[in-house]
Design brief:
The complex is a heterodimer of chains A (326) and B (542).
Chain A: H1 5-15, H2 23-39, E1 47-52, H3 54-57, E2 70-76, H4 87-97, E3 102-106, E4 111-117, E5 120-132, E6 138-142, E7 153-156, H5 159-168, H6 172-192, H7 200-210, H8 224-237, H9 262-283, H10 288-299, E8 324-325
Parallel strand pairs in A: 2-5
Antiparallel strand pairs in A: 1-2, 3-4, 4-5, 5-6, 6-7
Helix pairs in contact in A: 1-6, 2-4, 6-7, 6-8, 8-9, 9-10
Chain B: H1 3-18, E1 21-29, E2 32-41, E3 44-51, E4 62-65, E5 82-83, H2 98-117, H3 121-130, H4 132-139, E6 142-146, E7 156-165, E8 168-177, E9 187-196, E10 207-209, H5 210-218, H6 222-228, E11 235-242, E12 245-252, E13 263-271, H7 274-279, E14 286-293, H8 297-309, E15 311-317, H9 341-352, E16 357-361, H10 365-370, E17 379-382, H11 387-399, E18 405-412, E19 417-423, H12 473-489, E20 493-498, H13 502-506, H14 513-519, E21 526-527, H15 529-532
Parallel strand pairs in B: 6-8, 6-13, 9-11, 14-15, 14-17, 15-16, 17-18
Antiparallel strand pairs in B: 1-2, 2-3, 3-4, 4-5, 7-8, 7-9, 10-13, 11-12, 12-13, 18-19, 19-20, 20-21
Classes of the chains: A alpha+beta (326), B alpha/beta (542).
């Protein structure tokens, strides 16, 4: 029976990409926010910024190819009524950030800054623009320049509340396991399905709803393999006729997988079942080496495969200081 | 009288009147408030006296029946008329509720008096026999020890100490025994053992005279008379049959010669035999032989609690001498310094529980086991602090199919917790199961459920020589109590406890993941044998 816990933890260290750990991400953010601060129109209201998305949720991973993306929230100190046309605020942001090495484009949910190197897009940063209504609820500016005026709207969107809910759902070591499992699942998704077909936030919120911390009852150490298997079983058990619905636990309370086509959904389910079966098969292996070979096929080459136990040299000192007495 | 005392007396006077008392008279007796009054109860009028213990009701006041004294033969009523409505154990009430407390108290007094008054003389005496020892205690009778139970027709002896009181020497009975002499400076004299009924006893006092003796003799049958008047006897143990077996008292008259008139002192025999002492804890004597290997801070306390729990025999194994360094957390004191731990502990435990059978073995446990397990050992407690040694013993036990329960126990440093693993050869789930990495199936050098992260130095030095593991007597005792429970209940499984991190933080010692999992109650502090069994364990799975 192999749980490959050490390998799951090493895998996590390998794929982990956190805002706190990455000076590259921090530098990019600083540069962008400095540009915004220095160049934003004097007509724009005051604003505050915050991290949102996977960096705020501590579920960011290194992408398989290319540079990582980032999400920033820009929350203006104004009410929707002050700017009935939300495009005005998005333009302030776009105009402040436009530079020679990047393009800035207003998309419906955000302002996207795309960076280029040698003419190739390397990564992008999405800035979501918010105001706050009279009830204190954040409203997302949803509009493009090409949208008719009546389609430029403020929609309830509680990104900060979502971050709090997800980060507060578990504590201490349970929280660490939650993040490891979400990151592993996201890497599996990147590896098997592709980044764009199953949204990351859908996987994260599915884990928010259905993840249960799992550990060895004797020594209390977490078992990520079983935790992930249990989470997948929970997701599969909730599959409706043909779809899995994962509701955002804050406004706008939408289904995070609603944009997936039925074909994508079917593929997603089949691949989840394959992953679940692989986890079961790995667990049943007497040797961690064999288990990890099975897991590597699912999670990719970053999942380490140790030497066979029979060929592994004993690396422990043989004597330990227990600190126990009588 | 202070204003508070005045308020107290006023409250009581009001409450008494409200509760129907008449002829209420207040007085101070030895500066204590006393009320005398009458209380009607149907056809009866009870003359009573209320005596609070001070100027409040923090202790339940006593109520005396003002009748001709001394009272004899009325259950629940002392010689001085104190009506015992409650044994005063576990009472709870609001002491400021004067009326409420008095209402309950007087109702109980009336109920009791009416009930006893309505009994036949025979019924009254039968119940009174149950309380005879308490009655004598209230009369001021002395106490003597009784370490053992008597068989029928057994010779009984008294250990008498001649106590000097000024120029006089007064014989004082210290202990009654069945032939052994244990007390220093005591003379052993023979006394009789006489079974009598309560009906044969004239009213007893703490000191008895010739008139009482003659009256008593007149109540005895011929065979009883022979025992009572045997010239060999310097006293008599009276076993007065009651619903609990017997009330036990001794009349000691000593060697009075022919010139002095007969006179005797009454002693209540304070039972100190193991059966009585164990039953008084609510337990029963356990016919068990437990071997405790290692009598350090944990082992000594395991032994102590096993003795108090009624285990009949202990074999204590440890070759160490007791040193002053042990004083901080061991059950033994300074008297044991430079002596073998097992010998001092055996003496200590024999004092804690008379009649216990203790065998001290000042040797190494492996050397002892090599000679063979002592006969009839049904439990082995391993409290050596040496995990490799204990694993070796457990492996031997499984290989050789020993039948006894084996309990391995240890405490973690800096108050983080303790472990008790109870196993039985033939049943999976052993100490070695905890030394296998479930991931690699490979043996590991330290217990996987250790509460301290591996690789840290936990021992300390105070003098530059003499390393020690820092843990407190409380840590040792908590662990020992759990181990003792496993032994007493013959309970298999793995119990652990976790403390807080105060000491660990001060010592810069990091707890393990297992500690945090236990502390946050993610995992259970008790695991059944199957819960922690490793299927590939080379010890218990074979």
């Amino acid at each position: 029976m192999a749980h490959a816990q050490n390998q799951f933890e090493n895998f996590h260290s390998e794929i982990l990409l956190g805002y706190d750990e990455s000076s590259v991400l921090r530098d990019r953010r600083e540069t962008l926010l400095n540009d915004l601060k220095n160049n934003i129109s004097k007509d724009a209201p005051k604003y505050d910024t915050f991290n949102q998305g996977s960096y705020a949720l501590y579920t960011g991973i290194t992408p398989i190819a290319g540079d990582p993306d980032m999400d920033i929230g820009v929350i203006f100190e104004c009410a929707p009524e002050d700017y009935p046309d939300p495009l005005t605020l998005k333009k302030y942001v776009r105009d402040a950030l436009t530079r020679h090495n990047r393009t800035v484009k207003i998309r419906r949910p955000c302002v996207t800054v795309t960076y280029f190197k040698d003419g190739e897009a390397t990564h992008h940063i999405d800035l979501a623009v918010y105001s706050v209504n009279g009830n204190g609820q954040t409203q997302l500016a949803r509009c493009r320049e090409t949208d008719a005026k009546e389609d430029r709207v403020w929609e309830p969107s509680e990104a900060r509340e979502l971050t709090s809910k997800i980060t507060d759902q578990f504590k201490d070591n349970d929280r660490k396991q939650f993040r490891r499992v979400v990151r592993a699942l996201k890497r599996w998704r990147d590896n098997k399905i592709g980044h764009k077909n199953v949204p990351s936030i859908g996987l994260t919120v599915a884990a928010y709803h259905w993840f249960t911390p799992t550990y060895d009852s004797v020594d209390g150490k977490h078992i990520d393999l079983i935790a992930m298997r249990n989470l997948i079983n929970q997701m599969l058990a909730r599959w409706g006729f043909s779809r899995l619905t994962v509701k955002l636990p804050v406004a706008p309370d939408c289904d995070l997988f609603e944009r997936m086509t039925d074909t994508q959904m079917k593929d997603f389910k089949e691949r989840l079942e394959t992953l679940r079966n692989a986890l079961n098969e790995a667990e049943s292996q007497p040797d961690t080496h064999e288990a990890c070979k099975i897991l590597q096929k699912q999670f990719g080459d970053d999942f380490p495969v140790p030497e066979k136990a029979s060929t592994t040299k004993k690396t422990s000192s043989g004597v330990s200081v227990s600190g126990r007495s009588a | 009288m202070t204003s508070e005392q005045k308020q107290f007396t006023d409250s009581i006077a009001c409450a008494l009147a409200e509760l129907g008392a008449t002829q209420i008279n207040f007085r101070l007796s030895n500066s204590q408030p006393v009320w005398q009054f009458e209380l009607s109860d149907g056809d009866y009028v009870w003359p009573l006296e209320l005596c609070p213990a001070g100027w409040d009701f923090c202790r339940l006041p006593s109520v005396n029946w003002l009748t001709s004294l001394p009272v004899w033969g009325w259950p629940h009523i002392s010689g001085s008329g104190d009506v015992c409505v409650s044994d005063r154990e576990g009472l709870d009430y609001d002491p400021s509720d004067i009326t409420g407390v008095l209402s309950w108290l007087l109702a109980e007094v009336k109920r009791l008096l009416r009930e006893i008054h309505g009994m036949s003389n025979c019924e009254r005496l039968s119940l009174f026999a149950d309380e005879l020892e308490g009655y004598l205690k209230n009369l001021g009778a002395r106490f003597a020890q009784l370490d053992e139970q008597f068989a029928a027709n057994q010779s009984v002896y008294a250990e008498v100490h001649n106590q000097k009181l000024g120029l006089k020497t007064v014989p004082v009975l210290r202990r009654v025994n069945a032939g052994s002499t244990a007390l220093v400076n005591c003379q052993q004299v023979r006394i009789g053992l006489l079974d009598v009924s309560i009906n044969q006893l004239p009213p007893l006092r703490s000191e008895l005279n010739a008139n009482w003796w003659l009256h008593f003799l007149s109540c005895l049958d011929e065979s009883q008379h022979v025992i009572a008047t045997s010239p060999k006897h310097r006293g008599l143990v009276l076993r007065v049959a009651n619903n609990y077996g017997h009330a036990l008292l001794t009349l000691y008259w000593g060697n009075r010669g022919n010139k002095k008139p007969w006179g005797a002192t009454v002693y209540i025999l304070q039972r100190q035999d193991r059966d009585y002492l164990i039953r008084r804890t609510g337990g029963t004597v356990l016919d068990r032989h437990v071997l405790v290997a290692g009598v350090g801070a944990i082992g000594s306390r395991v032994a102590e609690h096993l003795v108090l729990a009624g285990v009949s025999k202990l074999t204590l194994v440890d070759q160490d001498m007791f040193t002053a360094d042990n004083l901080g957390r061991h059950v033994l004191g300074k008297d044991a310094i430079s002596k073998k731990k097992v010998e001092s502990l055996a003496s200590f435990l024999a004092e804690r529980m008379p009649g216990i059978d203790i065998v001290p073995e000042a040797t190494d446990i492996q050397r002892l086991l090599a000679k063979g397990i002592p006969a009839n050992v049904d439990t082995i407690v391993l409290a050596t602090g040496n995990a490799p040694l204990e694993r070796a013993i457990v492996r031997q036990a499984y290989q050789e199919h020993w039948s006894m329960l084996i309990v391995s126990t240890s405490v973690e440093a800096v108050g983080l917790g303790g472990h008790v693993i109870a196993m039985r050869p033939g049943t999976a789930g052993c100490l070695d199961c905890l030394y296998i990495d479930p991931e690699t199936q490979q043996p590991i050098p330290s217990m996987r459920t250790a509460l301290i992260k591996p690789g840290q130095v936990v021992t300390r030095q105070l003098t530059g020589c003499g390393a020690f593991t820092p843990y407190t007597a409380i840590d040792a005792t908590r662990t020992a109590l759990i181990a003792a429970e496993h032994v007493i209940n013959q309970m298999l499984g793995y119990s652990r406890w976790v403390g807080d991190t105060t000491q660990a933080n001060n010592a810069n010692i990091s707890p393990s993941d297992t500690y945090w999992a236990l502390r946050s109650q993610r995992i259970s502090t008790f695991l059944s044998s199957s819960d922690f069994t490793h299927p590939e364990c080379p010890c218990c799975s074979v």
